[in-house]
Amino acid sequence: MPTPCRPPLLSISGTGDNTVLVPQQVDGKKASYNDAADKLLYEIWQTLLLILAANPPAVSKPILFTVGDGQADTPADGTTSLVLASFGGIPMGNTEFVVLRNGIQLQYSNGITALQIIRKNTGATGGFDFDPASMLTFQDGDSYQLFPVGINTTIE
């Protein structure tokens, strides 16, 4: 019967509700995973490498602007919509974005709960409108970062 690690593994909080157990050193004694756990972790690592090799991650260029910076296609002060075919050569139609305003992520309204922004997509154009319930508008000096995170062909 396997015995627990001595000293015990250190518990570290991960994202969400995840907890990760990692080896630690206590009084000069280093904890380690048992042989079965080592083999399983190695198999998981190898599988992830194979998946990445078959599907290399793409690097996508973010859309960066500050309201009032004079950049083409930057929304005007007081407006509530950013829906375009492209921004700075980056296509916006059928694209899913993570949107940050002054470094804070804006959340998409979902039809039930009104949040900050509403996703817009016609296929040819894409972007977002501020949800009227949020009472937000584009304001001079506010910086925006839109990070493309995938393709979404849902027409909204």
Q: How much strand?
A: 25-35%
Count the strands? 13
Largest beta sheet: strand ordering: 5-13-9-10
Secondary-structure class: mainly beta
Shape: elongated
- The percentage helix is 10-25%
Largest sheet: 4 strands, antiparallel
What distance lies between the first and last C-alpha atoms, to the nearest angstrom? 57 Å
Number of domains: 2
State the order of secondary-structure elements, H for helix, E for strand. Answer: EEEEHEEEEEEEEE
Count of individual helical segments: 1
As a whole number of angstroms, the C-alpha radius of gyration is: 23 Å
Average of pLDDT: 84
- Unreliable spans are none
Tell me about this structure.
The protein has a 4-stranded antiparallel sheet with strand order 5-13-9-10, with no helix packed on it. The protein has a 3-stranded antiparallel sheet with strand order 6-12-11, with no helix packed on it. The chain is elongated. It is mostly beta strands and 156 residues long. The longest helix has 20 residues, at 35-54. The protein has 2 domains: 10-54, no CATH class; 63-151, no CATH class. It contains 1 helix and 13 strands.
